[in-house]
């Protein structure tokens, strides 16, 4: 299995490139067959997240740094 890049290490890009995306095959071992995973609640949470993003209810790096008092490097 390929290792994902360490996103905590600064580089010249903000987001992983498409080649860094996890292949769908890596999701085969997700515990959707596990009865302790509430798939309906997971789906609802994802829909709420998408609605928050669409409504602009998100936080950027500057807001997070200001809230927690973390200076820029």
From TrEMBL:
It comes from the Bacteria. Residues 12-27 have a biased composition (Acidic residues). Residues 1-27 are annotated as: Disordered. Gene3D superfamilies: 1.10.1220.170. This is Uncharacterized protein.
